[in-house]
Amino acid sequence: MDATPQRPWTRSYAPGVPATVADPPGSLVDLLTDAARRFGPRVALDFYGATTSYAELTGQVARAAEALRRLGVGPGDRVALVLPNCPQHVVAFYAVLRLGAVVVEHNPLYTAQELAHQLTDHGARVAIVWDKVAPLVTGRGAVREVVAVDLTGALPPLKRWALRLPLPKVRAARAAMTAPAPGAHSWSALVAAAPPLPADHPAPAVDDVALLQYTGGTTGVPKGAVLTHRNLRANAAQGRAWVPGLRDGEETVYAVLPLFHAYGLTLCLTFAVGIGATLVLFPRFDLDQVLDAVRRRPPTFLPAVPPIYQRLATAARERGVDLTSIRYAISGAMALPPDTVQLWESVTGGLLVEGYGMTETSPITLGNPVAAGRRPGTVGVPFPSTEVRIVDPEEPTRDRTPGEAGELLVRGPQVFSGYWNRPEETAKVLLPGGWLRTGDIVTMDPDGFVTVVDRIKELIITGGFNVYPSEVEEVLRRVPGVRDAAAVGLPGTDGEEVVAAVVLDPGVGADPESVRTSCRQHLAGYKVPRRVVVVDDLPRSQIGKVLRREVRDRLLAER
Question: Where do transmembrane segments lie in this chain (predicted)?
Fold first, then answer.
């Protein structure tokens, strides 16, 4: 199990990318401190034009840390963040870490039930929340202190003034950003009243826990992945090494991904800070707002997901907006269509490459080289200091032969230490020697490029044959009139049967049987959907990934 594998992929690295990265010299707090030392006057945050320098950011973090200390937050305590992208989110994240406490990120669009489960699980006593969702958090789990954040407080003065105008449209815009939070502390008042945390207050160590990030993992049961300062800082360093053309202190990164998601957190909260970038924050992805920001502060680096690249490039071309400042773009979370790559690169002149990761790996483990040698359709090669193996999913001690599909195992400094208070779940995925079972079936070519075939848990077994949903979905999306599709397995007479949910283009009235007929031209008989169900839309995660489990649950309920 512990034999060091060969690393053929390093010869596929872009020029200047090292095979390994150095161990992190300190915690994430040190990452911010170093950025402020090197780039103090530089704009760290831009929120609708309101700016915060790195020097100002560290000052705000120090005062926020003292305010939280006065609420009783200490080393090892969990603090829940339930916030969209905003300057207060960045300050709160680093303030919690400065105290040696643990950040727990939550989606502010979750229901009360979803939040209650996670709050009960991790036991945070203090929650820093968007004021609009404060009622969903108050009194849940072990929470005793709720600190409410008013997003309008971070807007430029003119925009804050405009939101006070007695106009219906303005009132609606204000209501979308803020709401009263009775019984909660005011974030702005707490921070304004606090002096800076004393400089000699104990700081976290590199191996202390920094973050609990909830994920369905490989089993679908929400649980908190335990990530240390070392894990997160190592992944930020790996990302920096992966793009040697970056210029520290000169880049502008757009935070269109939610910071509460592992992908957005690392690329925007740690990677961007590590290179002294200006982070332009968007509470949610809004095409018009992003294009307006491009005119004001052009981006140079954009982490996003395929639908965002498609929409941005199409709109920019139609409206004559210049995106050529974006030299590098990194796509993740779902397959990146080659036609999206072609469109994006023709509009920007920059590179768009795909990567791969999961919450348990901070999150990135593989990436396409940021160079001409990238291979669209693959998720790239292992990051520096990252090892991979491809094994028999039924017997993970047995390696597959080269080119044969199997489960991907990864090992590296970014791999988590386990699930919060779930030793049995941890034992299922963390193998001896530090190998993490990803639950993904992949193939690897001789140059180390990995192609994801599908997830083990979403594999459909029908008549004794394995059917990979992504293969079926790819064929379905090529059927004229089908805009999107999800393939799942439902109980049938012979194990499972393949069932497809399809979204049609507007005005198209495709016959489900004709869709099945089209599939028969490209799929073996047992892979052709037994049923095709037309739906208005498909359930998606916050970053746009189709949630096959929810599709399956809906189809079962309708049955």
Answer: 260-282
